[in-house]
Amino acid sequence: MSKSTATRQRPLSPHLTIYRWPVTMAVSILHRVTGGALYVGTLLVAWWLIAAATSPSYFEFVNALMTSWFGLLVLFAYTFTIFLHLVGGIRHFVWDVGAGLEKHTASRLGWVSIIAAAVLTVVVWFIYFAI
Question: Per the domain annotation, does 17 fall within a domain?
């Protein structure tokens, strides 16, 4: 085998510390992650419903877990996950009809998706605590 005589330093390939994610890529990854997270959250909701159908004492146990500070945090994240996945699906529907495919419009739709999911989550939880 021959040895390489290259004296120049090879360029580094892009990695997470130097690569800036476009918002469309971040929202696309979040859409996939939220799709998976919805399975876990739905299992929690099913557990709560099964507990309600089982016995009052078991329901009190599960309900106490769900209404603890950690349970409310998980439910808040689940609510955000639902809305982010919903708004992401609407964004994909808009693209499917052929609109919003320009680079600046797609980026704007990505930011709108994140902001809309956050606003909808806060509104739902505001209504929950107001009632």
Answer: no
Which bin fits 51, alpha (ψ -120 to 50), beta or left (φ > 0)?
alpha
For residues 120 and 83, the answer to whether their CB atoms sit within 8 Å is yes
In a domain, 4, yes or no: no
CATH number for position 124: 1.20.1300.10
Contact 24, 91 (CB under 8 A): no
What is the reported pTM?
Answer: 0.82
Residues 56-74 have pLDDT tens digits of: 999 999 999 999 999 999 9
Joined tokens for residue 19: 């690569």
Query: What sign results for the dihedral spanned by CA atoms 93, 97, 102, 105?
Result: negative
Specify if 5 maps to a domain: no
